[in-house]
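Can't attach files on this board, so I'm pasting raw text. These are the components:
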Amino acid sequence: MSDHASAPMPVPAPPAEGYSRREALVMGLFALAAAATTAGCSAADKLAYEEFVQKHFKDLSPEELKDRLAGMEKRYAEQYGKSVQVSATPPIPGTRFGYALDLSRCIGCRKCVYGCVEENNQSRDPQTHWITVLEMDKETGVNLQHADAYYDHETVPAPGKFYMPVACQHCDNPPCVKVCPVQATWMEPDGIVVIDYDWCIGCRCCISACPYGARRFNWGKPGIPTDELNPVTEYLGNRPRARGVVEKCSFCLQRVRKGLYPKCVEVCPVGARKFGNLLDPDSEIRYILENKRVFILKEELNTQPKFFYYYGL
Amino acid sequence: MRIVRLAVAGASAALLLTAACRPVQESGPRYGGALERAGKATAPGVAKSTAALFPVAPPPFSEGAFPCSECHGLTDKVDRTPHVVEFHDEIVLRHDEKNRWCLDCHDAVNRDKLHLADGRLIDFTESYRLCGQCHGPTLRNWEAGEHGKRTGSWSGAKQYLLCASCHSPHSPRFKPLKPLQPPLRQEAIR
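---
Top answer:
Structure tokens for the assembled complex are below.
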């Protein structure tokens, strides 16, 4: 026992003088890559190198961002055999997005679910849906313990039932952001909670932290048929994801930062979905917040969602 | 003065309409939301105009139904007592049918127009004014963007659906729909 106690503790080797662990690792890989190719680096190697050493989205200089966007476009073109546009549209100054959904109008038709899948390049196989439509009893009201997402009626609304679509609530105090160990998810100045899919390490802490079950993990390689791929994409929004990363609703960042309504608003057949700028006192969303019976989901958790449910009737 | 106002209203409505048809390319937010624009459009004097006040979707006419004047002449003799119209038998009135009939909304002389309770003629593109005579709070919410559906831009030009786009004026209750397929259960995803 005493021998064991006196044995020296294993100590990790100190980092090489003047280099961080990450830099040393990168240099090592670069040396390997250089050794593997006799004629130096080809264009493909350069792209692979860039992808490997790429920075966090927020640390990219404008030139580096341009390079990354071009690199991504090249990769997606190779992968899907069609031209894909990747942009990084900045937030519009003076905007804070909010969303309202009228529970007295929603009929549970799931048009929003599939409109979202198409717009935001969600995997068809294996299946990923950002929106879950919950069916609940009118008698008991909002009761998530007794909600059914798998209802399958001939027609909706079913008698005695009401419907509550749930997706990312874009909390102002987002627990998912707090728990991310690598800061791969954060809230943008316009209030949208985004994910850098290239920085996500797939630990799924955010999934367990989210009280709304809004985040999805790519357990398998996302499968999207080429002809169904939406080629207008955003870095922090609907660009195709890889296996092993987390994704979720981004308020259709690729649309709303160009002034358009989110896709789910446009496809809703009953006009139950409302979207706008919370900072604009004349917006539809402000009218609803000021005139209707509004509530937020799981208010007691102090997540401060910017997604509001209301009763229009 | 009145004519000038009308012209301005017409021009702005036309602008709104053309803007609604274009894909939106906005560099920044345009402050002054739906209410403000609606408020301007319904300023005193302008409300009396026949120009469309809101950029609305085309009225949902049945195939070949419009213009009504193709069949109904201006000088036709009209029986104004409520009765069942046999020709339009595909229309089943389920909208306060005990108290209302065709000519309470449709104009008896100019068949291509609707008329308000006081007899003023309005276009089908303005039918919300007719609906709002009974459904006042609903019209107010529609004008504010709470009731009904809008498409286009949250910050700028948008298109409003008419009341009649979702609620058949003859049978306004929203019809049930077939839901899209349920999500796969977790255990079925491979």
